[in-house]
Amino acid sequence: MPPRLQDLPQIQTLLDQPAIAVLTERYSHEETAVALRLIVGALRDALRGGREVVWPDFESMAFAAEVTAKIEAGRAPSLRPVINATGILIHTNLGRARMAPQAVAAMQSVAEAAGNLEFDLSTGKRGSRHSHTERLICELTGAEAAVVVNNCAAAVLLSLMATAGGRSVVASRGELIEIGGSFRLPDVIAQSGATLREVGTTNKTRLSDYADAIEPDTAVLLKSHTSNFRIVGFTAAPARRDLAKLAAERNVILIEDLGSGVLVDLSPFGLRDEPVVADILKDGVDLVMFSGDKLLGGPQAGIIAGRRDVVAQLKAHPLMRALRSDKLTLAALEATLRLYRAPHNPMKEVPVLAMLSEPLASVQDRADKLARELSTIANLDPETEQTAAYVGGGSLPQQDLDSFAVSVALDGMSPDDLMTALRSAATPVIGRIERNRVLLDMRTVQDCETALIVAAFTQISAA
Q1: By three-state DSSP, how is residue 262 classified?
Q2: 10 Å Cβ neighbour count for 88?
Q3: DSSP 3-state assignment of 250?
Q4: Using one digit for the tens of pLDDT, what is the confidence trace for 124-161?
Q5: What are the distances in angstroms from CA 138 to CA 135, 151, 278, 331?
Q6: How many angstroms separate the Cα of 122 from the Cα of each of 126, 172, 330?
Q7: CA distance 289 to 292
Q8: Which terminal residue of the chain has fewer beta carbons within 10 Å of its beta carbon, N or C?
Q9: Annotated domain spans of the chain
Q10: Is-contact 264 305, C-beta < 8 A?
Q11: What would the CATH number be for the domain defined by 83-92+354-462?
């Protein structure tokens, strides 16, 4: 006789069984009860839906093992390492930039001991948390002063609140950006207490448009780097130097939101659309904001650099305390910034820059090696193919990078099901689907991760 709903045992009955009672002592009564409810609930749903049910022996050790597995799954960390095989170097959903070992070590060292976060070791008196990164940022960018907050959106908000609250901000219509998470620049300007004055058109804004819009209550000319989209064709925008000269003549501040921001010239690697922070400041921009966790290759942070008097306004603003960075972020950022100084080579030691600049032949070698190893697994059909990777993270829109991927198909399993299985591996593998096959782009996969990918496919094939 097939099982019926009334055959499902009560949770308390299951808890009273000896094999299950052991689990309440090893874990907790509540965790065990929750696991039992999930298992019994799944059986109930299957019966109600008329689906085939594999009825367990509720008194067996096999059932106790199933409950144990459910408890352990519930205890697994929610935030876990994954293998980024998407070909997107700065993948926002996958945590953006992979940090350098030096940055990870710096975080650990200040996390497991007391530190001089706001303590001046030379005087024995209270110090400033801003001092740990400010000197390095100024050295690398040529800024007079700098401050770090928890992300670039916070940097924009703080900068506008401190310099333009209650006054007006002039910005080009072609630069009123929206980025991920519905972050809209006009909304941020409104939230800062400033009034937006739009000038120009979507594709053309002239210097005269800015000049005509400046009034006695104007505080800021705001320039935003269109890092996540591109306007092409019949376009025009004033040069930064001309905007800076206008701002100085009219006694207003020129601020630029870079979004990403780089400290080194990436044009030798074919990436010519991302301006270097130092060059922007040389052009006369008073304040520039950029991210720490994108092309800079560090932790999530918003870096603000520029004129000493303007940065001092930001440091003194009441919102600064709400947006300030913690000791782990500052430790990781300081360690990352040090990799841009001699004798270090950031293109080799900062992971995101190393991925970006890795020779194509090296990427192909890694793809060929993985394909050979996967070819030994039954029912698996791996192939190496040339493809395109992307910088991502709102940086360098439509700019692709030559890459190689391993294209995989598994007999009897659809690409969607294979992707699901890969996400369920001990170390989840995140790829993409193209032409009805799973693609694992090797530009974003490290050499040490290929063994984990092979282990994932071995487990899936054996299931």
Answers
A1: strand
A2: 21
A3: coil
A4: 999 999 999 999 999 999 999 999 999 999 999 999 99
A5: 5, 18, 9, 17
A6: 10, 47, 20
A7: 10
A8: N
A9: 5-75, 83-92+354-462, 101-344
A10: no
A11: 3.90.1150.110
